[in-house]
Amino acid sequence: MKPRSKRLMLLGGAVALLIGAVALVLTAFQENLVFFHTPTEVAEGKAPTGRTFRIGGLVEPGSIKRAADGLTVQFAITDTAKVIPVTYKGSLPDLFSEGKGAVVQGKMGADGQFAASEVLAKHDENYMPPEAQHAVDQAQKTAKTVKQ
Amino acid sequence: MIPELGHFSLILALILALVQGVVPLIGASRNRLALMSVGRAAAQGQFLFIVFSFGCLTWAFINSDFSLQLAASNSHSATPLIYKITGVWGNHEGSLLLWAMSLALWTVAVTVFSRNLPEIFMARVLGVLGLVSSGFLLFLLVTSNPFDRILPGAPEGRDLNPLLQDPGMIIHPPLLYMGYVGFSVAFAFAIAALLSGRMDAAWARWSRPWTTVAWIFLTAGITIGSGWAYYELGWGGWWFWDPVENASFMPWLLGTALMHSLAVTEKRGAFRSWTVLLAIGAFSLSLMGTFLVRSGVLTSVHAFATDPARGLFVLALLVLVIGVSLTLFAWRAPTLAGGGSFGLVSREASLLGNNVLLSVASGSVLLGTLYPLFIDALNLGKISVGPPYFETVFVPLMTPVIVLMMIGPFVRWKGDDGSRVLRKVAPGLIASAVLGIGAAFAIGHVTWRTALGLSLAAWVLIGSVLILRQRLADRQGAGTGARVRSIPAAWWGMWFAHLGIGVFIIGVTLVGSLNSQIQVKMLSGDTAQLAGYTFTFRGVANAPGPNYAAARATIDVSRGGVRFATLTPEKRFYEAQGMPMTEASIDIGPLRDVYVNLGDQLEDGAWVVGLFYRPFISWIWFGCSLMVLGGIFAASDRRYRRLAEREVPAGAARQAV
């Protein structure tokens, strides 16, 4: 092989590798995006069915209930306008409590219950998850517009 | 009074940083030796003032001076001394001061250990470091002054976030920062070389040990951070693809590529522009990591501040650094062309392949970390990218990297015969695949992921043995001891670091395949089974700590009727912050960890207990330790010192033109 064609092959190989790797990354990216929805959007049916997504808001006061096994937890997430019931089995974050902000990730069940696979809360007492804050802000903005 | 001294000292440090950033560069462009030599003194003075300033801040924390805003927010009179000290960097302002101090320390190290660099080159390196330091000190003083007072002083502090009150947090931030900031030296060397328009093997050789040392710190910092997440967050996981973890992982990936690319530039003169780009990239990603973590754009335990002015400042600094360096690169790149040519089958080509893949991997993490932020900033909705994305991407990207990693050392520089290489590696590759698949069957977990992971690990181990055998065969005749001794430290560094990756893969694969966990409701005397272990709940007692109240459970762990460990997980309540926290308890073993955490107490008095079985998780840390050890070997190679000294006259003559 001439040095020139060798060089071209090397370059071609590197470019092919790069293209293949980038294609892989973008496909995986497309498939694994998790969208965020506010409780109001979920109530309006804007959330996807059969796909994992996130809901953020406040844990509705008085809504936390433990099942008889002591491990399955039911609670509700609200943006102060709409309330979405959630079931979750697993350990809750230390700072998960009623009236405080939380974000849940999971799928909407056929029974209208959101089956959470992950519950995220804040990292310290003064902090509010931005997604939860966003949901509440949205709901309150809408409420104001309706009143006017 | 002491905090004011610290503040004043920080201002003086800024002035010296500006002097260090401007005067030597002017001297270098006009070839004035007197101006160039200002850099050293300014750098050393700057370091002393920053250390003094840091000392003042630490003094305020130790003495619980709650008239200092920072101490009042992040310390408490009842906090143990060690956490009073770590509280200094357990917050935005203090951690930035630590950042600035690391940079000053690296700069001083350059003035001390690279004394033999040509004066003009040293002046440019110090100039660049001085400019970076000025940016950060300005940032500190303008937007995040650690010495702000409150009047009247607070009667009591609000205490450090309990998650950070942990031994891991004592060394994790300093190590990580030493790693992040360490890439600034490689960056400064690259910019200095661009400015001088000369980029030769000597430059790469000067740069290599610095890059390796930065990489050692970063690796150690990430490892300890991961260990902290494992036992302190209490979820039994070791890596969460959390944006802040990604922020440290991206410079690591690019830094790893940089180390290998520098090797090629030094040995063969090839990849010169690529190496410079990687040096710029690794440092830019370190800066971006600081921006992501400290600006509060991320939801995370690391996000101390949510002040947009700060985020904007770091962002501006980042844009400035990347913009100026890339402009300089575009201007000078044509002079970098050429270098050694190499064939399709050659050591260079295999390293190029790994470099491309590591860079793409770094880019994929960047995409997954930044895209949600962009979408949010453009008000297009909120999304998140979770572990499934990163896992999907990393397995196929890293598989060829691992395979190539052990083939590379068999391939000759410049050009080699493909069939010769194939003959050398094919038996090992086939044996690894057989071993990996066999092992997957043996442990009864046959998935392609397990089989692939174990095959790759087997390939690294077999490859390591083959490489060592080949290396020893090179010196026929001499005794084995003499042959082993004749191998340079840098080679052992490569060998240990690569072996560490094999050990790491074993840990990751097995913990991913065989781990198990359950959540149970337990009353005193109850037992639960997991993975052949029996857990007996012995009840809960009060166990107050210095600044918290705690409920401590006692759980006996036995196997085959023999009790071998008593675990005591705690549920703590930190009074100052009103914050509950789970403290896991772990029985660590070479082949498995048994991990227990304590959840909530239920109405009937029972406790929710999490039981975790984590096989081979120690191998993850052990593998990372081997990588660090490899780095230490590589950086300590005598060759760098010897050659650096020998090169000086020639280098100086060339540079001074």
Description:
The complex is a heterodimer of chains A (about 150) and B (about 650). By secondary structure, chain A is of the alpha+beta class. Chain A is built from three helices and seven strands. Chain A has a five-stranded mixed barrel. The radius of gyration of chain A is 22 Å and the shape is elongated. The model of chain A has no long low-confidence stretch (mean pLDDT about 80). By secondary structure, chain B is an alpha+beta fold. Chain B has 20 helices and eleven strands. In chain B, strands 3, 4, 5, 6, 7 and 8 form a six-stranded antiparallel beta sheet that branches. Chain B has a four-stranded antiparallel beta sheet with strand order 2-11-10-9. In chain B, strand 7 and strand 8 form a beta hairpin. The longest helix of chain B is centred in the first third of the chain and has 32 residues. The C terminus of chain B is likely disordered. The chains are: A alpha+beta (about 150), B alpha+beta (about 650). At the A-B interface, helix 1, strand 1 and helix 3 of A face helix 13, strand 1, helix 14, strand 2 and strand 8 of B. Chain A: This is Cytochrome c-type biogenesis protein CcmE. Chain A: It is a single-pass type II membrane protein. Chain A: It comes from Aromatoleum petrolei.
